[in-house]
Amino acid sequence: MTTRKTRTNLVHGGTRRSQYGELSEAIFLTQGFAYPSAEDAEARFLSAGEDEFIYARYGNPTVRMFEERIALLEGTEDGFATASGMAAVNGALMSMLKAGDHLVSARALFGSCLYIVDEILPRFGVEVTLVDGADLDQWRDAVRPDTKAVFFESMSNPTLELVDIAGVAEIARGVGAAVIVDNVFSTPVYSDAVAQGADVVIYSATKHIDGQGRTLGGVILGTREHIRKVVEPYMKHTGGSMSPFTAWVLLKGLETIDLRVRAQTESAGHIAEALEGNTRLSRVIYPGLESHAQHDLALRQMGAGGTMLAFEISGGKEAAFRFMNALEVILISNNLGDAKTIATHPATTTHQRLSQEMKDALGISDGLIRLSIGLEDAEDLIGDLEQALAAM
């Protein structure tokens, strides 16, 4: 499978068929498995084989298909599927860190990720240092000989600030620290995080992997030794595993993710270009635009601008709300990576719990709108944005 092209792997990777020869992957909707004998049960608990299962919290044939397929796409040896994206973030960090360890993290994180890093980990004795993720000098100053890991979003939510994966990885390697990357905004389609130095890659599969607003899910990807010896014991005992039905939905999502994400990215580029220079906007943020401060890094790291863009409306919250309420095609929600284009006001939703000081530091103003581009016609989306801006 590893020698086949990406789209082939996304359709066929990891497939297991029962004796019935089903065309679409089977949903093994069971919580447990029967054994031929007591001796077989004992042997499986001692050491389960590659296609042997014990309990759905430990693993399941449908879930295993998803794990193998997404690992093929990401270029890792293995993966562990989780109940949600946040279960993946929590599992990746908590399974690796213990009291007395030191973590260096970018401060520009999704609100729930920041909660884990800034509040939960310190409760358990993990020392955390927050840095400006785009500033390599801050990473150099923050890491120490006892730093266990570094953590960041490769593209931050919601201001689309990039972290140089290769640059941070080189710094982390110097002190023997693991590199954990939340890669949601970069997407597995454009990701080359492992080749650039990531040890562990995390996705909220809720986003582009499902991409159609149907289910929650997440995945932690890395070496087989790390996934099975570090991540799996933590996840199976704490209960954050993915359900078989969710895995089946996500397998269907993977079949089309390459086509969907590339189409969304193409539309995002057209929309960003159409918005840039609009007098009602104080700035347009899109890594695919030459005006983005990290445009060169985006092309080097991803090869594209991605499916997300943001812009700041002059007039603050009141103007931003008037704009959002005037939208006709684009929906107001807090999700992203969906087939439907979604507008989000981060300051009052996804990042609402942050202090005003932190919002100011991260560039999350009251006029900032995050836009997740869907699969609608780009011209219809541009028309909707322009009429909503005019309606303000």
Task: Describe the 3D structure.
With 392 residues, the chain is of the alpha/beta class. Helices cover 42% and strands 15% of the residues. The protein contains 15 helices and twelve strands. The protein has helices at 6-12, 38-46, 61-74, 85-94, 111-123, 136-142, 165-173, 187-190, 206-210, 224-238, 244-275, 295-301, 316-326, 356-362, 378-391; strands at 78-82, 102-106, 127-131, 147-153, 178-182, 200-204, 218-222, 281-285, 308-313, 331-332, 342-344, 368-372. The strands form two sheets. A seven-stranded mixed sheet has the order 1-7-6-5-4-2-3, sandwiched between helices. β2, α5 and β3 form a beta-alpha-beta unit. α1 (6-12) packs antiparallel against α11 (244-275). The termini are far apart. The mean pLDDT is 96.
Topology:
Elements: H1 6-12, H2 38-46, H3 61-74, E1 78-82, H4 85-94, E2 102-106, H5 111-123, E3 127-131, H6 136-142, E4 147-153, H7 165-173, E5 178-182, H8 187-190, E6 200-204, H9 206-210, E7 218-222, H10 224-238, H11 244-275, E8 281-285, H12 295-301, E9 308-313, H13 316-326, E10 331-332, E11 342-344, H14 356-362, E12 368-372, H15 378-391
Parallel strand pairs: 2-3, 2-4, 4-5, 5-6, 10-11
Antiparallel strand pairs: 1-7, 6-7, 8-9, 9-12, 11-12
Helix pairs in contact: 1-3, 1-11, 3-11, 4-5, 11-15, 13-15
